[in-house]
Amino acid sequence: MTSTIADRLLEWYDRHARSLPWRARPGEPAPDPYRVWLSEVMLQQTTVAAVKPYFAAFTARWPTVAALAEAPEEEVMAAWAGLGYYSRARNLIKAARAVAARGGFPDTEAELRELPGLGAYTAAAVAAIAFDRRAVVVDANVERVVARLFAIEIPLPQARKAISAAAETATPDCRAGDFAQAMMDLGATICTTRDPKCLLCPLAEGCAARSSGDPARLPIKVKKKEKPVRRGTAFWIERDDCVWLVRRAGKGMLGGMRALPDDGWSAQVDGGGETPLVGDWQPLGRVVHVFTHARLELSVRRYEGLQTPQGEGEWWPLATLDDAGLPTLFAKAARLALA
DNA sequence: CACGCGTGGGG
DNA sequence: TCCCCAAGCGT
User: Fold this and answer.
1) Rounded CA gap, A148 and A187, in Å?
2) What parts of the sequence cross the membrane (predicted)?
3) Who among residues 238-267 of A has its Cβ near strand B, under 7 Å?
């Protein structure tokens, strides 16, 4: 009798699983749901390499979901700075508080799905990995592997339905969490977007895309829209070895993060260029930063006048600017000012 | 379903 | 330099 996809994949996983900080070692019981959840949220659209230091810092500082739930929001946001997609951090705090309030993580996919920041993928992943539930876990890796295995020619995202149906068929009743992680390891190391390594693949036999001779062709994706170029200005106001920082609105770009004052640029519109204070402004240079939907050319200007900023904000000591939790865009701007 | 939402790395 | 992307979610 021929072995199933799950059999072959799990056998491969038992020998080749990546060792990652949020994973249980082979033979150990399922890892702490808090660590599974935290890692999965951090890994949304984010590489393993980028996540590792943040995962280490978060778990050292907030070892439990209860500890995270008690943390001041701005400290969590600052700790997330640089990782991107800051709505994840905002939802992370909300979810931590909801979980702490109910005394622990729910252990079913449906209940997990109700927590902020847990969509179809993450709810299934946590249910399978942390609670050993059978759940069909479909991320971009699984989409790629499945699209190739079954030669699904429908372009993404249309193909999602067919792919999840195929993934459902392939998912085993036991070890669904290991199966999910095995699929993701396979996608990350063997069945890669470019140049898949079919000679090393445990599923090569019976893979339709491999038989076709051009596995990298699948899954078919539509081309992305062109990014507009936006221009904006950020303002460096320094006094007594402190810089004036504001907090951005809770939604939208870099929402909830500390920032330099700016002229109202966004991914949709250029900034107006109006300075927040009257007086001399010296150009410090320009920062180019690429967001998902726009490329921003940010001019940075330093205030030379004597007025005091109005409205919400805080004087932040330059000596501890690294702790302010500036998103990368503003960290670049600060580097200009301090150079 | 389409869009908005970061960042750093690889080819 | 440029493009694509890497364990998606919320609206």
Assistant:
1) 11
2) none
3) 252-255, 266-267
